[in-house]
Amino acid sequence: MRRRFPLLALALLALALAPTAAAAVDLARGETLANRWCASCHLVSPTQTRATPDAPSFAAIARRPDAPPLETYLAVTHTRMPDMALTRDEITDLSAYIRASAP
Ligand code: HEC
Description:
Layout: H1 5-23, H2 27-38, H3 58-63, H4 70-75, H5 88-99
Heme C binds next to helix 2 and helix 4.
């Protein structure tokens, strides 16, 4: 029985770490989501050249000191933005991506 302990301990450790790994911010996924859902209106990366003039670029949003908290903003529907029904994980990743957009 004693010899099984390390295996059991490892399994428990893996279980304990799994939710943390799943909840970790995924910048790459934020970028994918931004390109898919936001790039039609916003400049979401320095390499993008066309967007709607009245939508601020992600870099500009990230630099604004008075910007609304992104997580709150993205969780509610806004009149000028379509309701994209983002999940909480998607909102976390997108917000992190936007914050990382400021040069
Ligand atoms: C159909 C065009 C459109 C799409 C698609 C769109 N946006 Fe917007 N967004 C706008 C416009 C226009 C504004 C500025 C006016 C306003 O606040 O409603 C804006 C404003 C914002 C703001 C607030 C900026 C500020 O400083 O107040 C954030 C944050 C934002 N968008 C994030 C996103 C994200 C993230 C996505 C993709 C999931 C997205 N938008 C998709 C048009 C769009």
